[in-house]
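Researcher: Go.
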Amino acid sequence: MMQQRQLGRQGLQVSTVGLGCMGMSEFYGPANDADSIKVIHRAIELGVTFLDTADMYGPFTNEVLVGRALKGHRDEVTLATKFGNVRGEHGEFQGISGDPDYVRRACDASLLRLGVDYIDLYYQHRVDTKVPIEETVGAMAELVAAGKVRYLGLSEASAATIRRAHATHPISALQSEYSLWTRDPETEVLPTLRELGIGFVAYSPLGRGFLTGAIKSIDDLDENDTRRRHPRFAGENFAKNLELVATVHELAERVGHTPAQVALAWLFAQGEDVVAIPGTRSLERLSENANSIDVVLAPEELALIDQVFPIGVTAGDRYPDMSTVNR
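Model: Structure:
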């Protein structure tokens, strides 16, 4: 049975294993909506009921897809979406906005696309350094007061920004990249979240698929897959990171689970306030991820992983452009 964990102190409860829906519409090569809806429905059956989307995915089409899948299932899920990465109708990126008027418009547009009356968890996708975080979160707080949103979140925000935001209105969750090969949040962000009582939602908990063992060559990725442009998937970085992942594979064989399950089990062992939203379009991978909650790593196994994967060991930056994260 799927575990539940609490995010923040405002009452938000979510499934420990969630489902990131981004790849169902964009970034990771071609996808099929009918198959994606089957995955979402199966996720709900398995208790993977924390669903994550954003207005920018598609752009805009991922929310529509998730909304279609949720017809008749709205009360069974915790629905999270995001605003802030502005895109045009043709997919062009138009910058980051935390302008209060934009926040209100973006929320109404997301509600319409999703076909729902409220959003459980509404994140600012990226911090807009041109707008004081107090103004952005103030507008988000108005959405809570209006009943359009239940809980507030931030994504890829720095410890200082989180403090200012939380002082304006309680923040329930921070969503940032966190995995064996991205342990940066442990230095400043996680301690700040724990001091303030804010939960952590880990995206790309499987290193964008790298930690699963399924990607052994850049040729394993579709020619339109954006990971081909990520530094960690390039040349010498790819080779070095593949060597790191070998340890996960060896440990997985020893404990009788898959590399993905070991990577997720390590993440869940980092604290009861940590959940993950691995993305998948595969029913098989979905079940594999859901079953990761049954994997318990021994202290010596966790210690081995920590030794092989210290903070900063991964070769290459997370993104081609790191300027919009940790702000």
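Model: Residues 134 and 215 are 42 Å apart (CA to CA).
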